[in-house]
Design brief:
The protein is of the alpha/beta class. The protein has six helices and 14 strands. It is globular, with a radius of gyration of 18 Å.
Amino acid sequence: MLRDLSLERSLCNHFIAELRDVNVQQDAMRFRRNLERVGEVMAYEISKHMEYHTVSVDTPLGVAHPMLMKTQPVIVSVLRAGLTMHHGFLSYFDKAENAFISAYRKPHGHGEEIEVEVEYLACPDLDGKELILCDPMLATGTSLLLAYDALLEKGTPARVHVACAIASAVGIRTIQKHFPEGTTILCGAIDPDLNDMSYIVPGLGDAGDLAYGKKS
C-alpha cells in the first residue's frame, strides 16, 4: 500500500512546506521539530494498520473495553536524519523497541554510480514483529534497501512499514520491487525527479545537514 499525504487534506502538508522552505530551513531547531511532527502524523496513520484486540480496563465507576494494539512495533532509524522522525514515532509508540543503522552514500561525482556503506547496526530480534523504517529522504532507495537487508540478520519481521518525509518516484519503485509483499509506504510527498547527483528535485536539500550541521 502506498500513500502520498500531499494528495490528502493532512496537517502534514504544513510541516512538509516548512521543511522545503529555504528561509525556514535556517532555523535548525524548527527543521528538526518539523521532521519530528511528520513522524508523529505518520505514527498515527500507521497505527491504523496494526493488529488490535479488546481489553478490560477498570475505571472508578466500572469496566471499559478499549481496543488496544496487540504488540508495539520496532522503530528503525537510518542515521543521521532519521533520528528526528524517530522521536516523533516514539512519542506515539512509547513502548516500542528501537533500532539504529548507518547507511550513507560514499562521495561521488556527477553521473557516477552511487556506493552505499552500511557500518553500524543496533537492533533487537525482529522475528514476527511489526517493523517501521524511518528515512526522511528516499532518493534512489538504495540506502534503505541495503539497510533492510542488514536488518534481516536480526530476524524476519511480520510486516514492514516505510515512512519518508519526501520520496522520489524512483525510490518508490525500488521499494515496491524489492521489499516484501504487503509493505506499507507512507510519504509526506513524492517528487518526480532526481538530479545527476541523485538528490530529490525539488526535494529540500540534505536533511541530515539541515538537522545536525554539515559533515566534514
